[in-house]
């Protein structure tokens, strides 16, 4: 009797379940149909643009690129093939590349790059940058539109010349620690210098961005140092792996759980530093109100950091940054401010170690400026190191720290006569752009003289973009150039460098940063003993 009474209820539940399944199936069908229509529409719009072959629906050019080995070997294969294709197809002004169902335009000529970088419209970073959001939020690197414009305007004064001058003392101190670490390798077997220089750059950015000395060069196994490097690797791998894109699925993988742990370490560290800095500033205010004597104040030298300035920065309406705003900018400085400069210095060391004549010219210039003194580098010294400046620029031409970066087109535009619809992502490839034989004859040769004033006059302004260009150029490029020059000058005043790798043994890996596959291996000699 009870069974028959429940039957209508069961029937109603069953009909509701069927209706829900039908609705979900219809919604899924509509979403798939829209995806396919969008895919077909973009394919049709982009069809006139030269592209890679073979191309398959939904798969795009996925079967074209080799998937060599595992880990870095696989990523190296993709980057190497991309560069090889741009070299072979140099006479083609731009290329379309489909990664699965997503189209990208590859730009590697000054005229095509200029269309995007000179525009005030195309300032939105492409979709893969969203995987930086958990760590960096929507700070200066990842934000767009009004927030980016407001933040850029607010932060630009923090990179003023007089403020950067204060940071030079930190750079000198950390460079001297680096030299002490390198001393143990003098007149010994070849060694990999990449990590030594990277830890030095990390110490510099920690102290200048946060006012915190973490001693990475003395403690390379610190939890924070490990988290910085692990997070960078995890982000890059996720960008290349569509099955890791959904947040819910990502946490089910071991990588997702590692990401969560590393993120907690990074944010906890930054939170503690910010809280400590806020307390410090409050104490300073109290000291001022208590009229501390001038003699006491003079004994305590307070070093400025970006964090100090962020805590006092205001927008056009006089509004201060929120706590989360400050954290995302500090984390952005940490992420952007050490890996790029470290890579640039390592590539420069490698190239100098391969070219004794260029290295001798650098040594002569250093002797002219410093003599046999071991004093710290000053701002006036940096201005006089013109040849070293050209060496660094040429190293960044051959091995740009950021090998490619991407933007989303905010409106329809024309590039070299080809119509490109709104919403398409473009990938700008400085590594290929900097090898334009019409701008840089014999482009693979290391020639610092290319950056002498007489050779740069009249050069296309978008032929050389190691720090990007236009509105979204790197806000910290003067900081980076100052750091690279000061640290390299300190190393080269003390040592002669000899590289033990051939160019074809480097195996550059195009990740977030351009890295050598197996490090930078060098031998060192003291200049006093080598007679140079």
Could you please describe the fold and organization of this structure?
By secondary structure, this protein is α+β, with helices and mostly antiparallel strands. It has one domain: Cytochrome P450 (Cytochrome p450). The protein has 20 helices and 12 strands. The strands form 4 sheets. Strands 1-2-8-5-3 form a 5-stranded mixed sheet. A hairpin with a 3-residue loop joins β10 and β11. The longest helix is centred in the first third of the chain and has 45 residues. The radius of gyration is 27 Å and the shape is globular. About 0% of the residues have low confidence.
Put simply, the count of helices is 20
Number of separate strands: 12
Largest sheet: 5 strands, mixed
CATH architectural group:
Orthogonal Bundle
CATH topology: Cytochrome p450
Helix content range: 40-55%
The Cα radius of gyration reads: 27 Å
Shape: globular
Defining traits:
12 strands; 9% strand; Cytochrome p450; 20 helices; 532 residues
Concise account of the structure shown:
With 532 residues, this protein is an alpha+beta fold. Helices cover 55% and strands 9% of the residues.
SSE blueprint:
Elements: H1 2-46, H2 72-88, E1 94-99, E2 102-107, H3 110-117, E3 124-125, H4 133-136, H5 145-155, H6 161-183, E4 191-192, H7 194-210, H8 223-239, H9 247-250, H10 254-289, H11 294-299, H12 306-312, H13 323-354, H14 356-370, H15 379-384, H16 386-398, E5 405-408, E6 413-415, E7 418-420, E8 425-428, H17 430-433, H18 453-456, H19 477-494, E9 495-499, E10 508-510, E11 514-516, E12 521-526, H20 527-530
Parallel strand pairs: 2-8
Antiparallel strand pairs: 1-2, 3-5, 4-12, 5-8, 6-7, 9-12, 10-11
Helix pairs in contact: 6-7, 6-19, 7-13, 8-10, 10-13, 13-16, 13-19, 14-16
């Amino acid at each position: 009797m009870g069974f028959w009474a429940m039957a209508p209820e069961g029937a109603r539940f069953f009909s509701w379940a069927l209706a829900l399944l039908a609705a979900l199936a219809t919604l899924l069908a509509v979403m798939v149909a829209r995806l396919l229509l969008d895919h077909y529409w973009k394919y049709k719009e982009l069809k006139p643009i030269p592209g890679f072959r073979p191309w398959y629906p939904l798969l795009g050019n996925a079967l074209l690129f080799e998937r060599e080995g595992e880990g870095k070997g696989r990523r190296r294969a993709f980057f190497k093939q991309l560069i090889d294709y741009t070299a072979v197809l140099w006479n083609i002004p731009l290329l379309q590349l489909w990664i699965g169902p997503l189209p990208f335009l590859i730009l590697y000529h000054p005229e095509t790059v200029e269309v995007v970088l000179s525009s005030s419209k195309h300032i939105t970073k492409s979709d893969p940058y969203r995987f930086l959001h958990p760590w960096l939020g929507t700070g200066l690197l990842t934000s767009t539109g009004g927030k980016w414009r407001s933040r850029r305007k607010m932060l630009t004064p923090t990179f003023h010349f007089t403020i950067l001058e204060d940071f030079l003392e930190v750079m000198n101190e950390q460079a001297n620690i680096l030299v002490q670490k390198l001393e143990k390798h003098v007149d010994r077997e070849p060694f990999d210098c990449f990590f030594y220089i990277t830890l030095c750059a990390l110490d510099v950015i920690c102290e200048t961005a946060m006012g915190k000395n973490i001693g990475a060069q003395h403690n390379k196994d610190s939890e924070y140092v490990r988290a910085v490097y692990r997070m960078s690797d995890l982000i890059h791998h996720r960008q290349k792996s569509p099955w890791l894109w959904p947040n819910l699925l990502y946490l089910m993988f071991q990588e997702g759980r590692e990401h969560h742990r590393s993120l907690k370490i990074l944010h906890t560290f930054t939170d503690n530093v910010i809280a400590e800095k806020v307390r410090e500033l409050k104490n300073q205010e109290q000291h001022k109100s208590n009229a501390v004597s001038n003699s006491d104040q003079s004994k305590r030298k307070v070093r400025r950091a970006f964090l100090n300035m962020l805590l006092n920065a205001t927008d056009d309406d006089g509004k201060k940054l929120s706590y989360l705003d400050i954290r995302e900018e500090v984390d952005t400085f940490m992420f952007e401010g050490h890996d790029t400069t470290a890579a640039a210095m390592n590539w420069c060391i490698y190239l100098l170690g391969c070219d004794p004549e260029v290295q001798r010219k650098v040594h002569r210039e250093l002797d002219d400026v410093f003599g046999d003194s071991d004093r710290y580098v000053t701002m006036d010294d940096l201005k006089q190191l013109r040849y070293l400046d050209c060496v660094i620029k040429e190293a960044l031409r051959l091995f740009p720290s950021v090998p490619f970066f991407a933007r989303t087109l905010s409106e329809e535009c024309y590039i070299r006569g080809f119509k490109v619809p709104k919403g398409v992502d473009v990938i700008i490839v400085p590594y290929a752009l900097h090898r334009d034989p019409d701008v840089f004859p014999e482009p693979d040769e290391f020639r610092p003289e290319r950056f002498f004033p007489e050779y740069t006059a009249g050069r296309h302004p978008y032929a050389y973009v190691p720090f990007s260009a236009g509105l979204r150029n790197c806000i910290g490029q003067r900081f980076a150039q100052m750091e690279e020059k000061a640290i390299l000058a300190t190393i080269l005043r003390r040592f002669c460098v000899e590289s033990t790798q051939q160019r074809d043994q480097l195996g550059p890996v195009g990740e977030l940063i351009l890295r050598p596959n197996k490090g930078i291996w060098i031998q060192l000699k003291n200049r006093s003993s080598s007679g140079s």
